[in-house]
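Hi X.,

You mentioned you wanted examples for the new student's onboarding notes, showing what a folding record looks like when two proteins sit in one file. Here is a clean example. The first protein comes first, with its sequence line followed by its structure tokens.
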Amino acid sequence: MTNKKLICFDVDGTLVDNKTSFVTLIEGLGCPIGEVLSIYNDAMTGKISFPEGERKVGGIIQSSGRATKGFVEKILEKDPVKEESFEVVEYLKNIGYDIWLVSGAIDIWVAAVAKKIGAAGFYAHSSLEFDGQGVFAKINYSGDQNPWKAKIVQKIAVDNGIPVSDIIFVGDGANDIEAFKLTGRGIAVYPYDEGMEDIAWKKIKSLSEIKDILQ
């Protein structure tokens, strides 16, 4: 039996205002964001496979001629964390919570946010590969984030020796739904996907309201 307390946060739109790290990356490289979003939508709706979507977006990134590891890290590490995120995370640490990030975003971006807020650890659904010269080579994006997030939350529970029902999950998007269902303790941050309306344990308009829920 353990008294460990643990809370998982989505990152995109939850701890950071930006809704997706890929938008930050594509815009930072000066690539056509509309074309990339169209490819993403085609993959999500099944018009093309995820591997084909990865290949197409990877080609766009390569065509920028600027996608070196150093430059990409500078783009992804500068996205600001919400000011209230620091306040809430500090509060949660002070009352005994370990903070974990479970995000569909790019690993470099999630790692940067984890470092800024002092998270205990993180998992990222997407990653970028670079060749021996530090030039972008490919995207790794393994399909639907929903079952992946639930699987990661289960892993975190096992690794930390606590029931998954003791884990709180904070998020705002449709890809957080399975994690909400799994834990039964999902906190939806406004503006959240309407699919979360009936499954959220709590619904909040700002992160700071977490301090009223968890004491």
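Then the second protein repeats the pattern, sequence line and then tokens:
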Amino acid sequence: MACNNIVLAGLAKDCSSNLGGVKKLHIANYEDVTIPTGVTGDTINIDMTPFKEYHVRRGASSMTSTATKNVETGNNFVTTIVTFNIARMEAGKRAEMVALLSGEVAVIVEDANGNKYFLGENNPVEATNGGGTTGTAMTDANQYNIELTDISLEMPRFVVSD
């Protein structure tokens, strides 16, 4: 007997435009965000008020979600990693980097297609890597880079906001 009664609908061929990459991040202290409970379906309603915008350069940021399922233990979860760069190392950006590395946050990722995804539904999002580089050549990036990791029960939901 199956564990779930799933309903598959199938997907038609999609011929529309589809752009890769991240356009913008919205980040807030985790404790400042009201996360609705009992959410089902593809969307989640999030109040954008506590979030601060982080504009990122085209081609310098990404979001990757990876589902992990262990049939022996019955565990399954999704790890979503957001990587982004903060161009030009300077004092104000260093302070922001330090805050992100030490805090627990909620994140909304806006992709190049205008879709927004919520990270932090089940657990706070935390920085798992970060650093800075001056580069070597004049054309190399001078930047901070950071990796934010979310571990949730499902793939990130699409954000609808008031």
